[in-house]
Amino acid sequence: MNKLLAALIATLFATAAFAQTAPATETVVKAQASAQKDVNKAAASEAKVDAKADANVAKAEMKADEKKADAHHKANKTKAKAHDKVVNADAEDKLKAEAKADKTDAKADAKATKTAVKANAKVAKEKVEANADKALAATKTEEAKAKADAEVKAAAAK
């Protein structure tokens, strides 16, 4: 929204300054109005793309947090079951059960970490895509501004 407002204000000053330096003919006024309309449309489109990209990143972060929490919960559940088996084991088998529980703990932790890494990678990918979308939208806005300035200059030259 700030970018949109800044673009509108900048184009307002630019058109006002230009209007003061050259006599405003009907063709120039029409060209300025048309140019302003195009720039406003491009700025609005850029703001929309920015908002959508930010929403996608937020959604990806939320999903990643859920996946990490689920993986951590599953790991804790698996560890608890393994330790229950140790508690219920006979005195003779206790050492063997403890070793098996340690192995299960390590597997559960590894699986949870693996899930967390994958979730973080998806978030990072989404952030890269969002930044690319924002950059493209900003480029389109700049292109619209340049085109609009050129149209106004061409109309003033007539």
Structural notes for this entry:
The chain is mainly α and 158 residues long. It has one domain (2-157). The chain has helices at residues 2-21, 26-88, 94-157. It is rod-shaped. The chain starts with a helix and ends with a helix.
Write the topology of this structure.
Blueprint: H1 2-21, H2 26-88, H3 94-157
Helix pairs in contact: 1-2, 2-3
What would you say about this model in short?
This protein has helices at residues 2-21, 26-88, 94-157. It is mostly helical and 158 residues long. The longest helix is centred in the last third of the chain and has 64 residues, at 94-157.
Structure keywords:
single chain; 158 residues; 93% helix; 3 helices; 0% strand; mainly alpha
Question: Strand fraction band?
Answer: under 5%
- Low-confidence spans: none
**N-to-C span:** 36 Å
Number of strands: 0
